[in-house]
Amino acid sequence: MTTYEEIFENNQKWIEEKKANSSDFFQKLSEGQSPDFLYIGCSDSRVTAEELMGVEPGEVFVHRNVANVISNTDLNAMTVIEYAVAHLKVKHIVVCGHYFCGGVKAAMQAQDLGILNPWLRNIRDVYRLHKDELNAISDENDRYNRLVELNVQEQCVNITKTAVVQRSYINNQFPEVHGWVFDVQSGKLIDLKLDFTKMLHDIQEIYNLGTS
Ligand code: CO
C-alpha cells in the first residue's frame, strides 16, 4: 500500500515522466479541456476511470458516486451533466457500473443503513422495475450481477430523461449514452450495447420535454 508521504514522491516522478514524453505537457493541459467523454462511475477505489479506459488527462470528464446513481434531484450530478453536454459538448456519456459493487449489494439486503437508505433506494427502485426478471434468477451472485447491469441501464435512462441531453441530441446527434460494466475480477470492460436511440424513443412518450 502506498503511504501518505509516497504520494508526493509519486507525483514528482509522474511530472518528470510526462515531461520526458512531451516537454509542454502541462503547458497544454493549462490551456483548457475539450474531452469527448463524460464518465459516470462508482466511487469504488478499484474502479478507476482513466486507468481502465487507457486515456490521458484532458480526455474524460468524470463524475463518481456510490453505485453510479443518477437522481434528478441530485444537484451535483445534474450540474456535471449540464456542464459536460452544454458547455464541453461531449460526444459520449458513459455510465460504468462494476461487478462486486458494495452499493448494489447493500441495496439487495434487508438492512437499515441510515443516511445511505435514500441513496440506495434508487437501486431498490431498479430492482422493483425489473423484479420479475431478477426474481427468476435463482443464483444469488448471478442475480446480483444482473442488478449491477440493470442499474447501469436505468441510470442511462435517467440521463436520457434530462432536457440538456434531449436538446443536444435532437440538435447535434450527440451525445450518445452508453452503459458499461467493469469486471473487477478479470479487468475487462464490458459494453452492454444499449441501443441509445431506442432508449430515447421508448421514453419519449412520457419524458419528451419538447426540446428543440
Ligand atoms: Co460500486
How does this structure look, described?
The protein is of the alpha/beta class and 212 residues long. It has one domain (34-204): Beta-carbonic Anhydrase, Chain A (3-Layer(aba) Sandwich). 52% of the residues lie in helices and 14% in strands. It contains 10 helices and 5 strands. The chain has helices at 4-21, 25-30, 49-53, 75-87, 102-107, 116-129, 131-135, 140-160, 163-172, 196-207; strands spanning 37-42, 60-65, 92-98, 176-182, 189-191. The chain has a 5-stranded mixed sheet. Helix 3 (49-53) links the parallel strand 1 and strand 2 (60-65). The longest helix has 21 residues, at 140-160. The radius of gyration is 19 Å and the shape is globular. The structure holds cobalt (II) ion. Cobalt (II) ion binds next to helix 5.
